[in-house]
Prior knowledge:
Layout: H1 19-46, H2 52-61, H3 66-72, H4 81-93, H5 97-121, H6 128-135, H7 138-144, H8 149-169, H9 173-189, H10 193-210, H11 214-239, H12 253-264, H13 269-295, H14 299-326, H15 336-353, H16 357-383, H17 389-399, E1 405-408, H18 413-420, E2 427-429, H19 441-448, H20 455-466, E3 471-474, H21 501-519, E4 522-524, E5 541-545
Parallel strand pairs: 1-2, 1-3
Antiparallel strand pairs: 3-5, 4-5
Helix pairs in contact: 1-5, 1-6, 1-16, 2-4, 2-18, 5-8, 6-15, 6-16, 8-9, 8-10, 8-14, 8-15, 9-11, 10-11, 10-14, 13-14, 13-15, 13-16, 14-15, 17-18
Amino acid sequence: MIEDAQPGAVPSTIVRKGDLMKSLELFAAILLSAMMIFFLSVRATHAGALWRDEAGAVQLAQLPKLSDITANFQHEAFPPPFPLLLRNYVALFGATDASLRWFGFIVGVAVVVVAWFNSRALGDRAPLLFLALFGLNATFLIWGTSLRGYGLGCVLLLLTLGLAAKAIRQPTTANAVLATLASIASVQIMVNAIPLITAIAASAFTVFLLQRRFRQATVVCFCAAACALSFVPYLKAYLDADWNVPLKYPVTFLSLCEKLRLALEEGGPLIALFWYLAVPLIVFAGIWLWWILRRNRSFAEAHLLLFLIAVSVLPIFAYYAFLKILSYPMRPWYYLPLLCAVAGAVDLVGGILARIQWINIARLFLAIAALLFLPFTIWKSAHERLTDIDLVAQKLQQDARADDLIVINPWFLGISFNRSYHGVTPWLTLPAIGEHRIHRFDLVKMKMMSPNPIDDVIDAMKQTLKSGNRVWLVGGAHMPQPGTAPLSLPPAPNSQFKWSIDAYTRAWSQQVAMFAQDHALHGEFPNPMGSAVSGFEKVPLWMIDGWRD
């Protein structure tokens, strides 16, 4: 039924949905949720062993004393509450790979629950767009369920968004307190939430200023300050981390956009197409509806819509500034919090727009298309192992002798190898460092500054081969270009590559490869790999033996 435009009412182009459309919307959302939970269960049973980032997280959580965690948390990216949570989870459910994979499943289900909570808290809608754009996205399926803080941080970030939207509509003390608690919890789990929480707070502050509700705007400032203060205890550890210089990488707006595109296309270009179609359509349609609501003096709804539109856009700029300051080589999981925030806001905007018939039909069509096509695009990703280091470790436990030597190249594979390997053969990393439970870039930085960073590894390989035993190279090695000498770099930062850890890692790998070529009599390349393995930790295995001068 089309209504006549009245003061304070929406125009005649806006219609009330019938019971059939609401039933179809609810049915599609339930199917999307069921599909998402199905893929979460597939992921939990097929992701395999923990790869190095996950192994570092759980091994940090298992350090002997709590003081060890608080002294080393900055090496694994997430504030202390996350490893402490893992510590308690392990105490309750065990530290096996299978048990820890179900942690990711629980986090994924929590994302579904919060998405439904947000949609129902603001009306009688279902989270169609969020489930389609984020829930059936390979980036979320792979990295949101991995044993890192990104997934749980996204749950709390999404909850913050929903509670903040509710506080915009009903600015009560209870709603403000709940939104503040959720934001604090989010930044306690995930540093990447800080720019996004800032964008949400800035959006709320702006809306209250436009309403001339200065008291509520002041409350937003106090809430944001409380969230910021909760992070202060960790600031010194992060700011004093000069060891992260080798991780710094020049980033530009175009390079970040390219990495964002790759994160959207993690499971294929189709999901990215959904994003490119849905997000601009919903944002521009939301601006149009905001103008109509404002003209018709429906200010409460207009201000809520303005807040959600701002949260759909502002996080992009806030997160760009964060990544620019961070200046790390971009990985798909870095974009997970941004995708969650934007998808959550766009979904809520779409719920308000659902009163417009053609947009509601398009929204429902998008959800049905996601149900029909996206499962095929993420099927492979759902079954892909994150590592085969456990298979390599099993083979070495079977075949390597006590007098052999295992060399892990590059060094960071030692983190997951340390968790998976239980054999008797001695092993060391390239370069040799004294800690293999967590990422110790500070120790690697010291090796980069050393004049002879891998002499000890070369000497150990030489003695092993001369004594008639074998050297196993986990991760293989990189041969230099034919006719060229291996890269040899002076102590950092005195080379042309300055603090580039990639350049030094490549140089060390080439030197070991050339040593093996010049002095080993035989080489084999056993392949313990089983099913499909992610390129982030697909580990080759070499074996060399014999000696020649």
